[in-house]
Amino acid sequence: MNDITVFPTIDDIMAAHQRIQPFIHRTPILTSEAINQIAGCEIYFKCENFQKVGAFKARGAANAVMKLTEEQKVNGVATHSSGNHAAALARAASVAGIKSYIVMPSNAPEIKKKAVAGYGGEIIECEPTLIARETTLKEVVARTGAVFIPPYDYLDVIEGQATCALEMWEEGIPFDTVMAPVGGGGLLSGTALTSKYISPKTNVIAGEPEGADDASRSFKAKELIPMVGPKTIADGLLTSLGKINFEIIMEYVDDILTVSEAEIIEAMRLVYERMKIIIEPSCAVPLAALLKNKERFKGQKVGIILSGGNVDLGKLPF
């Protein structure tokens, strides 16, 4: 399938990791004996909930900004996002000393708007529809000359997200399976590239909510099926799978497992209770998928990326 797109190589991913060092934390890998006993396997949690801006998105945004030419940097960067990519891009731009213009839907959480403003991003509000977001973004780019940095369907962003799995593999753990959640597919496609380059026999498996299961349906149909009317507590996974991401997933991902809302909440609660760390609902989806399919992972060493910790504590589901 990659006759359409030239995917980042392992050398590209390693170069990206060097490039973004000043912008990111090297996040820890944590384990829980209690969760291992329940799951029947050894799980290694890569804690991107401790990352800058509270999510893995810091990686892709930093890489994309750092790869801009001096000429491109002059007019700054722009994107449309209601969540973590908005804050990640505003922060990366601020560190690079350039302007950022962030189109956000009027119903975006206040906490996300505050984060963007805190990093010096200029917020342009629009109606909460995809058409409004895209139209407003086009107007902003035309007015400012800023470079559009998409949240996931963009090679420089995928390359940056791939550095998370690179750090996992550098720990020397012989993973049988590596798992990540899937929404737009930036994290999953980057994780799959790194893992298959380093260890082709390792399984790469995604977790996805049943209420936003376009990646699973696309994967089975072998064609990109957009999501219409997604509904899930895992708000970071509401977006439809990107085109480039789909190409990479079809070539390098082994399976996509779906889980119910109750299973997501149960897995999220388990992490809060046993590990004493804050994760957002999207993070809990791969663990929920593993717990639902215990036999499949029995006795394995499984790496799970906890993608972020930006949760509204007033709206916890338990």
TrEMBL record:
Q: Which residues form the Tryptophan synthase beta chain-like PALP domain?
A: 20-308
Cite the CDD domains for this sequence.
Thr-dehyd
Keywords, A to Z?
A: Lyase, Magnesium, Pyridoxal phosphate
The protein's name is Pyridoxal-phosphate dependent enzyme
Report which superkingdom the organism of origin falls in.
Bacteria
Native organism is: Aquiflexum gelatinilyticum
Q: Name one GO molecular function term.
A: pyridoxal phosphate binding
Q: Which GO terms describe its biological process?
A: D-serine biosynthetic process
Q: Which SUPFAM superfamilies match?
A: Tryptophan synthase beta subunit-like PLP-dependent enzymes
Task: Spell out the InterPro entries in the cross-references.
Answer: Ser/Thr_deHydtase_PyrdxlP-BS, TrpB-like_PALP, TrpB-like_PALP_sf
Sequence similarity: Belongs to the serine/threonine dehydratase family.
Q: Which cofactor does it need?
A: Ca(2+); Mg(2+); pyridoxal 5'-phosphate; Mn(2+)
